[in-house]
Design a protein that fits this description.
alpha/beta; D-Maltodextrin-Binding Protein, domain 2; 18 helices; 14 strands
Length: 432
């Protein structure tokens, strides 16, 4: 028996030697070392991206992996909140999907319903070297990689160059103090006293009802004061950030509820500065192709401690996937440098620009792009949180809106309003 086992072992070793095979090439063992030959079929759920753009990447993958069939299903018919509810509600059952697009703020809550990447596909160390820190903060949990960014995005400042020319301003503001001075100078009013109206706002900031990305803007201010959402959103530092935000509405009166929603107002030349993620620029260009505007990194509170605000979508593998090996192989392929470049190039055939690169090594490729490069300038210092707008986190955004309105209506002070927000308490409806 001993000699029989020895003979089997020798044959096993010889087979590796003669065929130049490794453990990674074994169909069963290989998946645990991250190098199994992918085969079979996988289904990929995506959102918003042009089908032709995604299919170009899928074709690239299938050309390199002819034993894998990838089916793309566009779920854009669902709004982000409905999509999120479907993902969360069915995660423990069976989504019937192998690769799914999820928001970066969802990963920690979905962790137990996801299959992490084999270490041979993405190790935590290699991942942190390849992507911005906010990606690791979002998706590397307990030393395992649970999701990979399909692209990066975050807040930028848009400014109307014609309005700036009127007051002799050339460069966009880099600090909040400078931003506030400019916002006051750029605001045009008519009438006097109680009849005074804003004809043109200097900046869309200060309230929550007609600024779609108000929660991202507050998240930015929180991050710049060292506040982590939601852990210490009830602190004095957070309250001071909210007080500063509402000052533009209460004291400076540069923005109010009579103005159109901020993005619309900017496209209509009714506001000089707004804050949006870079994808919103596409909507503004479509609404007003001749608008003369610039894109800049967000202002900073402390230049020596810069911080920005990120919101992006990631690729993950549900625990119920029937082919996790092929699913992770596909994710690794389409998030490689070569395919990120292809994604940007293909998308640029259908719109003015593609999504910002997720890999840090590619930032220099678009350093001169007037629309995309500003968002990547501050990406190394970005934070994120579940108050991001248009991310399916509607309940949190609505609760933060209630907190802002409670302060504006003088129902409570900022710290109490944020404490109620953190604890999930309803905001007061009167100041009696």
């Amino acid at each position: 028996m001993k000699y029989k086992l020895l003979t089997i072992a020798l044959l096993f070793v010889m087979s590796f030697t003669l065929t130049a095979c490794t453990l990674q090439d074994l169909p069963v063992v290989g998946q645990y070392f991250g190098g199994g030959k992918a085969s079979g079929s996988i289904t990929f759920w995506g959102l918003w991206e042009n089908r032709d753009v995604v299919n170009a990447l899928i074709n690239n993958y299938q050309n390199a992996n002819p034993n894998v069939t990838v089916t793309y299903e566009d779920r854009s018919i669902l709004n982000p909140n409905d999509y999120r509810e479907r993902i969360f509600a069915r995660a423990e059952e069976n989504l019937g999907v192998d690769v799914v697009l999820i928001h970066n703020t969802w990963v920690s809550s979905l962790k137990d319903s996801l299959t992490p990447a084999p270490s041979g596909v993405f190790s935590a160390q290699d991942y942190s070297s390849a992507f911005y820190p906010v990606a690791s903060d979002s998706a590397v949990l307990e030393g395992k990689v649970y999701a990979v960014p399909f692209y990066y995005d975050g807040l930028v400042l848009l400014y109307n160059k014609d309005h700036f020319d009127e007051i002799g301003q050339i460069e966009p503001p880099t600090s909040w103090e400078e931003f506030r001075r400019l916002a006051l100078r750029l605001t045009i009013r008519s009438g006097e006293g109680e009849d005074m109206e804003i004809v043109r706002s200097g900046a869309a900031i200060g309230n929550a009802d007609n600024i779609e990305h108000f929660s991202d803007l507050l998240g930015l201010m929180f991050s710049q004061t060292g506040v982590t959402v939601p852990a210490n959103v009830d602190t004095t530092a957070a309250a001071e950030a909210l007080d500063f935000y509402t000052t533009f509405y209460k004291t400076d009166q540069i923005w109010d509820e009579t103005m159109p929603e901020a993005n619309t107002a900017f496209a209509q030349n009714k506001v000089s500065m707004i804050f949006v993620p870079s994808w919103r620029i596409l909507d503004i260009l479509e609404a007003n192709p001749t608008l003369n505007f610039g894109v800049a990194p967000v202002p900073q509170a402390l230049p020596n401690k810069p911080a920005s605000w990120a919101s992006f979508w990631m690729l993950a593998v549900p625990a119920t996937s029937k082919n996790p090996t092929a699913a992770w192989d596909f994710i690794k392929f389409i998030t490689s440098e070569e395919q990120e470049l292809a994604l940007f190039s293909e998308a640029s055939k259908f719109r003015p620009f593609g999504a910002p690169y997720a890999r840090t090594s590619l930032a220099a490729q678009i350093a001169n792009d007037p629309f995309v490069s500003p968002v990547l300038e501050t990406a190394p210092n970005a934070k994120s949180g579940y108050i991001t707008a248009r991310s399916g986190n509607d309940n949190a955004v609505k609760a933060l809106k209630d907190a802002v309105n409670a302060v504006l209506n003088k129902y409570t002070d900022s710290q109490t309003a944020l404490k109620n927000f953190k604890e999930g308490k309803a905001q007061p409806t009167s100041n009696k």
